[in-house]
Specification:
mainly alpha; 3 domains; three-stranded antiparallel sheet
């Protein structure tokens, strides 16, 4: 299991994400320089996207091909089929050693030997990946992307006091050594795209962040930035925070243990199994409901809807002691149950009227003193 971040590092990352800024230290012309990266605004990113399209058109005019149009001969001259097979084999070995190290006891001789072997494999893998990436440098898309990111870098790079260091990408490239420019670009892209998923998940679980996240749910503001200007890292962190919040709100009988929650792979496996279980239960419930309700008619539940067009419809007045709803909806009225004919219903209605008339006569007689 990977080593957990220190509380200081967690706090540093949280502040960086909320502020949308990072301080980096680079050597330029023999002097060390502190540069503040500020995440580009939405309008600045939009400007750079337009620049990318213009650069793509210029690259095509200059003769650079699309990536899909690269000939096999061009690819083979830089990164051949044997290189690809070697790279794939190395990637599998790296993956295997990473899984093996998780089972080793940290600090033991066996662990240290495997760690050393993994470092060698990763170095060989990175060399081949770099070799493969060089192929793309001969394409129009690569040239356009490079122009875009250098322009974004010029928007982002500020002095420690807050002034922009370069007005555009051209100014950066003309005033600096090419090695410095590309080194700074790599640092910027690392900041621009945010931290990897494992770190984002660890921050989302951290007590320091959980307190801030829960306060935001109650109305507290975590950042002054507009939604359109939020850094990618902020969006990723909020997404993982909502994920862990939903887990904390699960029933205690369903919720995974703290040990599982702390382990990304185990938690992902647990949640996949849980979602499959919930989905299966929902489908079973749906089928059961359809079978017990959806396939039955009103008559299967002793309920009949009698419309005015039906020969069984009788307009029974409330003054006769009945209500229309006793027949129109609900359980079938005793007067119309079974195979009762229209004439029988009419006869019962007349008898009911006669009884009601006699009750009214007796009531009047009592009021008048007549017995």
């Amino acid at each position: 299991m990977k080593e957990a971040l220190s509380e200081e590092k967690v706090q540093e990352i949280i502040l960086e994400i909320l502020c949308g800024e990072r301080l980096v230290r680079h050597e330029c012309n023999g002097k060390w320089q502190i540069i503040r990266f500020v995440y580009p605004s939405a309008s600045e990113r939009q400007h750079c996207s337009m620049l990318e399209q213009e650069s793509l058109e210029k690259a095509l005019e200059s003769g650079l091909p699309f990536e899909k149009d690269l000939t096999e001969a061009m690819r083979e001259s830089v990164f051949c089929e044997d290189d690809l097979e070697t790279l794939q084999a190395l990637q599998k070995k790296v993956e295997g050693f990473e899984k093996l190290l998780k089972k080793r006891i940290k600090g033991t001789d066996l662990y240290l030997k495997d760690l050393e072997k993994l470092a060698v494999l990763k170095h060989k893998t990175s060399e081949l990946e770099l070799k493969r990436s060089i192929v793309n440098e001969y394409t129009a898309e690569y040239r356009a992307k490079e122009d875009k990111y250098f322009e974004l870098l010029s928007f982002s790079a500020h002095s420690i006091s807050g002034e922009r260091l370069w007005s555009n990408a051209q100014g950066l490239l003309e005033s600096s050594k090419i090695s410095f420019a590309y080194s700074l670009l790599n640092s910027f892209l690392d900041f621009y795209w945010g931290y990897n998923t494992a770190i984002m998940r660890e921050i989302a679980r951290a007590a320091q962040w959980r307190t801030m996240y829960l306060s935001a749910e109650k109305g507290a503001r975590l950042t002054d930035k507009a939604a359109k200007d939020l850094p990618v890292a902020y969006l990723h962190l909020m997404s993982w925070s909502m994920y862990y919040q939903s887990i904390s709100e699960m029933l205690s009988s369903d919720r995974p243990s703290e040990e599982v929650i702390e382990n990304d792979e185990q938690l992902d496996e647990f949640m996949r199994a849980y979602q499959a279980k919930v989905s299966k239960e929902a489908q079973a419930t749906s089928r059961k409901n359809h079978k017990s309700k959806g396939s039955l008619s009103a008559t299967d539940k002793d309920q009949v809807v009698v419309t005015a067009e039906s020969r069984s419809y009788v307009n029974i007045h409330k003054e006769d002691g009945y209500s229309d709803t006793s027949i129109i909806s609900g359980r079938v009225n005793e007067d119309v149950q079974g195979d009762t004919s229209y004439s029988e219903i009419k006869e019962k209605r007349n008898k009911s009227r006669d009884k009601a008339s006699k009750r009214r006569q007796r009531a009047k007689a009592k009021q008048g003193g007549v017995r």
